[in-house]
């Protein structure tokens, strides 16, 4: 099943619904059953979500997918955990040694936003970089999860752009500053359940581009720590909860490793595409233009 959280164009953006996506059309699941709620948590916690949804969409009215403005799949995830250095060629282009343990960091909610919303290039830096990533959403609570059982803890897979302000990322041994600027981490718009994809979402083409300029192109099978191993590793120290988000790292081709370096510029639209999941497209805007326009963040 393919899901999307959003609101109808021209309506109150706080009034979000959960939609089942069927090609170019969608069914408003929240409209069919108010108990589903306004983000994916209702389905994540439902004891038989798949069959419940199939019952709701049977003969239900549809609307054009283009009428829906995306929102965050989970409005307030408890944890947003990200992997760095998960593709060998990306490790090499960054000048790092291949780690024996995954490089893990966390993002705060203010750094995240829905697909389609503008990525903000901060006024204090021009070094806004792109990172195409697979994102998973945890569906079942677990601690000390066995690798063999780990994939059963995944509710679905989405797309993430781990926008990184590189000079701030390198101000300290911890990457927190460069990874947590406001509105630099778009996610979505679709969440695809595991039955629609290969196990662990492995073997999928992953690409980033601006217009016809292809910036990154790789395959999720190249991840050093695949989804099952990542979940098992993280759950050694943290209890994973339904709705938690885990970003799986980026392949080579990022802007800071290019010659000359290639930063995202206001006026561009960066697209992240993952085979079988979709496209996360984000326009880039300068923070100064928002402030001059009187828009508060």
In short:
This protein is of the alpha+beta class.
Radius of gyration: 19 Å
State which percent range the strand residues make up. Answer: 25-35%
Task: Based on Cα principal axes, name the global outline.
Answer: globular
In CATH, what is the class of the largest domain?
Alpha Beta
The end-to-end distance, rounded to whole angstroms, is: 34 Å
Q: Number of DSSP strands?
A: 20
**Can you tell me the CATH topology of the largest domain?**
Fumarylacetoacetate hydrolase, domain 2
Average per-residue pLDDT, rounded, comes to 96
Number of domains: 2
- Given as residue ranges, the uncertain stretches (5+ residues, pLDDT < 50) are none
Second CATH tier, the architecture of the largest domain? Alpha-Beta Complex
Q: How would you sum up the major sheet?
A: 6 strands, antiparallel
Order of helices and strands, N to C? EEEHHHEEEHEEEEEEEHHEEEEHEEEH
Judged by helices, strands and strand pairing, the structural class is alpha+beta
Fourth-tier CATH superfamily name of the largest domain: Fumarylacetoacetase-like, C-terminal domain
User: What's the helical proportion of residues?
Assistant: 10-25%
Count the helices. How many? 8
How is the secondary structure organized here?
Elements lengths: L1 E7 L8 E6 L2 E4 H4 L8 H4 L4 H9 L5 E2 L3 E3 L9 E5 L3 H6 L9 E4 L5 E3 L4 E3 L6 E2 L2 E7 L15 E8 L2 E2 H4 L6 H4 L5 E3 L2 E3 L12 E6 L2 E7 L7 H8 L10 E3 L21 E6 L3 E9 H6 L5
């Amino acid at each position: 099943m393919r899901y999307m959280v959003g609101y109808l164009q021209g309506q109150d953006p706080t009034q979000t619904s959960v939609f089942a996506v069927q090609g170019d059309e969608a069914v408003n699941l929240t409209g069919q059953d108010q108990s589903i709620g306004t983000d994916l948590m209702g389905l994540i916690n439902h004891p038989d979500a798949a069959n419940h949804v199939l019952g709701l969409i049977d003969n239900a009215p549809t609307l054009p997918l283009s009428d829906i403005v995306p929102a965050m799949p989970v409005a307030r995830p408890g944890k947003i955990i990200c992997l760095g250095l998960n593709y060998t060629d990306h490790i090499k282009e960054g000048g790092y040694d291949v780690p024996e343990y995954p490089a893990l960091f966390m993002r705060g909610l203010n750094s995240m936003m829905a697909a389609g919303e503008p990525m903000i290039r901060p006024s204090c830096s021009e070094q806004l970089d792109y990172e195409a990533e697979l994102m998973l959403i945890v569906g079942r609570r677990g601690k000390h999860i066995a690798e063999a059982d780990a994939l059963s803890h995944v509710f679905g897979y989405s797309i993430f752009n781990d926008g990184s302000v590189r000079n701030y990322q390198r101000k300290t041994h911890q990457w927190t500053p460069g990874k947590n600027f406001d509105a630099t981490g778009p996610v979505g718009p679709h969440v695809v359940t595991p039955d629609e994809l290969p196990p662990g979402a492995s073997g999928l083409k992953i690409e980033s581009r601006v217009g016809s300029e292809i910036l990154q192109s790789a395959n999720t099978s190249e991840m050093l720590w695949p989804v099952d191993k990542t979940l098992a590793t993280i759950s050694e120290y943290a209890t994973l909860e339904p709705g938690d988000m885990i970003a799986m790292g980026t392949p080579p081709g990022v802007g800071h490793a290019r010659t000359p370096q290639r930063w995202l510029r206001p006026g561009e639209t960066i697209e992240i595409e993952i085979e079988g999941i979709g496209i996360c497209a984000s326009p880039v805007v300068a923070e100064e233009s928002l402030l001059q326009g009187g828009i508060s963040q």
